[in-house]
Amino acid sequence: MKNYIERYIYAVTKRLPEKVRAEVKNELQANINDMLPEKPTDEDIEKVLKTLGHPRVLAKNYETKERYVISPWFYADYISTLKIVMTIVVAVFVTIGFFEAIINLEQQGLFHQIVDVWASIISGAFNGVVTAFAWVTAIFWIIEHAAKTSNCEATWDLKDLPEVPKVNHKAKISKTESMIGLILGTIFSAIFIIILMNYMNVIAIYDDGVIVTQIFNTSVTDTFIIFFIISAVISIAVSLLKIYYGEWKINLAILYTAFEILSTVLFLIFINHPQLILPEVFDTIAFYMEIGSAEVVAGFEKGIRIFTIFVSVVVFIDLSATWFKTLKSIEQK
User: Fold this and answer.
1) For the segment 143-185, what is each residue's pLDDT rounded down to a tens digit?
2) Are residues 113 and 203 in the same domain?
3) What is the pLDDT of residue 333?
C-alpha cells in the first residue's frame, strides 16, 4: 500500500533524537507486524496505522523526557529571579539610553528630539529584557543540570517551606497607574530637560515677533541640567520598582520618600533661585503694565512663595498616604 508502513515509521522517528531512532524504528516495526494478520490487505494496514494514531502524537509518547529549557522543579525560582534581574537590568539600560539620548541630542525640532529620547529609552528597555532573559535562562540551565547530577531533589526539609504571605489590598500599587506615571513622567522630564538645554534663549517677552527681553538666566539654568537628568533617571528606576513590587514595602517606601524629598527640594531651589529670572524682565513687565518694578518683583516673589507652599503640601500628603499604607501593611503581617 504505497509503502505506508515505512513512511509512517519515518514520520514518527524523524521527530525523535537520533540516538534512539533505530531502536524505536525496530520496536515500532515489530509492533505493527504483530498487529497485522499474516497476509495483510491495504485495509488492514490502514486500520492498524489509524489505531496507532497520528505520527506526531506517537513520537511524543516515545520521548523519554519532557522538552523544556527550565524544568518545573526550578521554574518558580527562575521566574522570580528573572523579574528581579530584568527590573534591575532594564533600569540600568534605560538609564544609559536616557543619558546618551540627552547628551547626544542633535539640533532639530523639539518633537524630533523627544522622539529620539523615547526611541533610545525603548531600545534600552528591549536590550535589557533580552540580556536579562538570556543570562538568567543560561544560569538556571546550568543550575538545573548541576542539580540533576548531585540529586539535590532529595535534600529538602519541611522547615525549608516558605511562609504564606498575607495579602493587603490597601497596600497594593496599581501597575496601570505606575505604567502611566512612568510614561508621562519620562515624557515631561525629557521635554523639560530638552527645553533647558536648547530652548531657554527663545523663552522671552516678544513684541511684534521681536524679542524684547529673554526671561531666564541661562547661566543659572545650565547648572541645574545635570541634576534634573539624574532626577529623571532615578524617577524611572523608582517607577520600575513600583511596577515590580506591586505593593508598598518598607524599603520601597524609604526609597520613594527619599526621591520625592530630593526631587522636590531640587525643583523648589530651582524656581526660588534669586537669579533665575533676569532683572530686565521685571522692568519690561512694569513698563507694559505701567506700574513700578518693585511692585512687579513683590508680586512675583509672593506667587513663588504660594506655589512653593502648595507643592510642599501636595508632596507631604502624598508621602503621608504612602507611609500610612506601608505601615498598615506591616501591622497586618
Assistant:
1) 776 665 555 444 544 444 444 455 555 677 777 777 777 777 8
2) yes
3) 54
Question: Cell 508502513 identifies what position?
Answer: 5
Cα angle vertex 216, ends 104, 274, to 5°?
120
Residues 37 and 105 in one domain: no
The total number of residues shown for the chain amounts to: 333
pLDDT per residue as tens digits for the range 129-146:
888 888 888 887 777 766
| Residue 65 per-residue DSSP state | S
Cell numbers placing 275: 537669579
Does residue 164 fall inside a structural domain? no
Whether 130 and 93 have beta carbons less than 8 Å apart is answered as no
Structure confidence at residue 105 (pLDDT): 62
Grid cell 515505512 in the structure block, residue? 6
**At a CB cut-off of 8 Å and minimum separation 6, what does 217 contact?**
275, 276, 277, 278
Which residue in the block uniquely carries the three cell numbers 510614561? 183
Residue 297 C-alpha cell reads as 518683583
Question: Do 90 and 43 contact (CB within 8 A), yes or no?
Answer: no
293 and 211 in one domain? yes
* CA dihedral (322, 328, 329, 331) positive or negative: positive
Regarding beta strands 204-207 and 210-214, do their DSSP bridges make them parallel or antiparallel, or are they unpaired?
A: antiparallel
Extract the C-alpha cell encoding 60: 511524543
Q: pLDDT for 281-300, tens place per residue? A: 888 888 888 888 889 889 99
Q: Domain check: are 92 and 202 in the same one?
A: yes
The pLDDT assigned to 161 comes to 42
In a domain, 15, yes or no: yes
For residues 241-268, average pLDDT: 88
Rounded CA-CA distance 230/71 in Å is 41
If we measure between CA atoms, which residue out of 303, 144, 327 comes closest to residue 249? 327
**120, 265: one domain:** yes
Euclidean distance between CA atoms 47 and 269, whole angstroms: 86
Domain identity same for 98 and 193:
yes
